[in-house]
Amino acid sequence: MRAAVSGCASVPGSAGTLRGAAIPKYTRPLLIPRVMPVAAGSGAGGAGLDHYEIAVRQIGQHVLPIELGLRPTTVWGYGSIHHPETFAYPSFTIEASWRRPVRVTWINDLKDPATGRFLPHLLPVDPTLHWANPAGGAQGRDRRPSFAGDSPPGPYRGPVPFVTHLHGTERVQQESDGYPEAWYLPAATDIPEGYAETGTFYDHYKRTSQLGHLWVPGAAVFEYPNDQRATTLWYHDHTLGITRLNVYAGPAGFYLLRGGPDDLPRDALPGPAPRPGDPPGARVYEIPLVIQDRSFNDDGSLFYPGSRGLSPPHDALYIPRGDVPPIWVPEFFGDVMVVNGQTWPYLEVEQRRYRFRILNGSGSRFLILKMENDLPFWQIGADGGFLPAPVERGTLLLAPAERADVIVDFSGVRAGTEIVLLNLGPDAPFPGGAGARADAATTGQVMQLRVVPATSTDASTPPHRLTLPPITRLGDEEVVRRLSLNDVSSGMQPDAGVLRTALLGTLAPPPGSRTPRPLCWDDPITENPSPGSTEVWEIYNFTVDAHPIHVHEVQFEIVDRQPFDGPPRPPDAGEEGFKDTVIALPSEITRIKMKFGRPGRFVWHCHIL
Length: 609
Ligand SMILES: [Cu+2]
Known about the structure:
CATH class of the domain at 479-606: Mainly Beta
Number of helices: 3
Domain Plastocyanin-like: 529-609
Radius of gyration: 23 Å
Distance between the termini: 19 Å
CATH architecture of the domain at 479-606: Sandwich
Strand content: 25-35%
GO molecular function: copper ion binding; oxidoreductase activity
CATH topology of the domain at 479-606: Immunoglobulin-like
Shape: globular
Protein name: Bilirubin oxidase
Region (Disordered): 133-160
CATH superfamily of the domain at 479-606: Cupredoxins -  blue copper proteins
Bound molecules: copper (II) ion
């Protein structure tokens, strides 16, 4: 395991010129992602696996309401290369079956289809970070470039590096995990001379992967075994130092693994979910919801800040004269809520039960969801599949990348009722607890549910009577590791407290010390579990904000959380099952337990992008 630099820290406020408050709400029905078609010759009864050929492309989509009279917003989306109509934000859902591997040819198609020339990024790329750095060529790629002169460099405008990770997947081979240095550029006609077209580990893994002979320029082929518990996964970019921008631009989709001993019979839960070939408007009662904050410019384009926004004298800290990246904003909060690729949609719900698979797909924002009329969420699952038992919850706290599988019962709600799904989380880094809330007029609202009479009987089991698949607990740990989350200020004006970077690390010896030892991406690997071993990781959060910590390749148990100066407490409601992302609160130790399977090189990191 390798500690990744994460972008966790404090916030200069900034927003696009189209104010969130000026966008009309609840004028359009929710867009429900359809099912990604398999490649020709694959599919049911095929060669023992499902094969997809999925590219990421630049598209236009009405993320904003049509009545604003703006052109479609330019975004990126994944889609099936044989089905141009499937390119969308969010992307179509991959439906996977237990123990049936999925093989995906992932294509970086961020180029102009007419000319074959590369498309630059939609958003400002900070070239001063330790990042993929294609312009560095074979020697300088995957490193922090050095800059000379007095003024900070402008944004990188070259071809975009990209590599896809399936979040939450277990027992995948390292070559298929989307390692941050396994990126690749599009196979464009005008890649500048001297640029690296692939990351360091793309080259390495192309040689070692059993599928490496299928990796052609602009593409990689990954395979997922699907032998884990049935659950809600999602796929997104994972490129070194640019993930926040690649994900913000749009490409992300659900990956739903069904079947096996850890799933329920289909009729026990509200359904169906969208199916391949559904006609438009087909009735579905299992609906995935990806909630994200965004910000827009007056012309409808996506806004993302292009400057750290330091004012004098702190702007003297910018690289190259100082040590602070000039463009990268450590955490960004948009003033608009987007659900399934549309701002503030509504969903007509019948008087019956629905299953929602909710993903917080935001870069920095923690969500605290609540139904305006206090209708409860019956949470049945989380990141790693079903909980041991359904939990009735009034609010749902979701950090970036966390998922909640919930049932909401509208059968007792009067037809004609309109319910707003609220967000009580802050418009700022999450400190834990209940503090400042999001702006009630904008980001304090997520979507609207409009209750209408049922059109058929609901055969699903009421959630309080559901028996969920049993959970086999992990055994005793053989190893305990102590890890740290650290904010690091600029060394030039230490008293100014200007955040330079956020680093993961370990704790300095001896055991029992509370001295963090922050480490960088290119430091030697410190977490090196043996295959088959069970470990407990104690994550000491020395920063002032909560961080969602994600470990690749495993699903873990949350053991407990302990304030630095207090007794431990058990996991929260909804955390009794398996997780791949855990909220580590400031000034606390968060303990997670996991069993490592395959050998290989995998990352753990903060999911504040
Ligand atoms: Cu992720």
